[in-house]
Amino acid sequence: MLFSMMLMAGIAGGLVTFPSQAMASVTQSKTIKVSGQVVDQDGQPLIGATVKVKNAKLGVVTDFDGNFTIDVASNDVLVVSYVGYKDREIAVRGRATLGQIQLDDDTNMLEQVVVVGYGTQKKADLTGSVSIVNAEELKRVSNSNISTMLEGKVAGVQITSDGQPGADPAVRIRGVGSFGDTAPLYVVDGVPMGTTIRDFSPNDIETIQVLKDASAGAIYGSRAANGVVIITTKGGKKDQPLKVDYKGYFGWDKIQKGVYDLTNAEQYSRYLGIAAENAGIPVPGGYTLGADGYYHFIDDTNTDWLDEAFKTGIRQNHSVNLSGGGVNNTYNISLDYYKQKGTLEGAGPNFERYTARVNNTMDVKFIKFRTSLVYSHSDQDNLAVSNANEYVQGLYGNLGNVLGGVLNMQPTIMAYNEGTWVLDDKVGSASAYRYDAYGFGVYYDTVHGDISAMNPLLVNNLLTRNTIVDRFVGTASADVDLLDMVGVKSKNHTLTYKLNLSYSTTSCNDKTWIPAWIQSNRVYLAKENERLTKAHRKYTDALIENTLTWDGTMGLHHANVVVGQTFQQENTNTMSATGVNLSEPYFLQLQNASSWSADSYEYKHTLAS
Question: What is the mean pLDDT of the chain?
Answer without folding.
Answer: 85
